[in-house]
Amino acid sequence: MSNMTMTSTTSAASATSTSSSHDMSSMSMGGSSNSSSCSVDMLWNWNVIDTCFLSSSWHVTTQGMFAVSCIGAALLGVSLEFLRRVSKDYEESIIRQFQRYAAAQMDSEISPFVCGAPPTYITYRASPLQQIIRAVLHLAQFAVAYITMLIAMYYNGYMIISIFLGAFLGKFLFDWGQYRIVLGQTPGPAGSNMVVEEEATKCCG
User: Which of 36, 42, 74, 154 is least surrounded by CB atoms within 10 angstroms?
Assistant: First the structure.
């Protein structure tokens, strides 16, 4: 009688453990089915959902998130052209500052002009603050360009097109070409006395 009781108790315990393990496996399978993983391709692709860029935290799960990601990629291209424009303007401002200083120095020093004398050159170096600003602008350009390159290495067609459009828009907005034509005073062959200098306009047009 006692043997029958122990056998039934053991069977019930094994059945309970089997059902609990089955429930746990079902829960784990259900949890894994609900979670989505990143889809990373190293070949050209047009993936939208479950795409990841740079890290797992940049995980696109909806079309709206992907649209925002494309806009961000385009803004990277725009910001790169903007930083190039700012850096170029700053370089030109340093040159103009040196030119004003050189003109003031030449005015203070009275030197007779000799026809045929070689030109006089004055060399200036940027101040430590100016050099720091130049280095910071260069660092910003390098960082934006490197991040853009890393995003493009995911070979997503939509993101690459967005980067191209951002570069086009940035060039159009921040580097509008303006040309100054200097005409020579003495007559000569056609075009021999014409010098074309390209000047980029300011950032806002």
Answer: 42
Asked if 76 and 166 count as a contact pair (C-beta separation under 8 A), the reply is: yes
**Residue 35 confidence (pLDDT) above 70:** no
Q: 156: how many CB neighbours lie within 10 A of its CB?
A: 25
DSSP 3-state of 109 = coil
Task: Say if residues 154 and 69 touch (Cβ distance below 8 Å).
Answer: no
Instruction: Give residues with Cβ within 8 angstroms of 81, minimum separation 6.
Output: 167, 170, 171, 173, 174, 175
Beta strands in 23-127 (DSSP E): 51-53, 55-60
Contact 194, 181 (CB under 8 A): yes
Q: How do the domains of the chain map onto residue ranges?
A: 51-110+118-175
Burial-class residue 63 by CB neighbours within 10 Å (0-12, 13-18, 19+).
exposed
CB 145, CB 79: distance < 8 Å: no
Of the candidates 196, 197, 202, 198, the residue with the CA atom closest to the CA atom of residue 175: 202
For 147-182, the pLDDT digits (tens) are 999 999 999 999 999 999 999 999 999 988 888 787
Question: Residue 200 forms beta bridges with which residues?
Answer: 177
Give the whole-number percent of the chain exceeding pLDDT 90.
46
**pLDDT, tens digit, for every residue of 84-125?**
999 999 999 999 988 888 887 776 665 555 666 677 777 888
User: At 109, phi and psi to the nearest 5?
Assistant: -100, 120
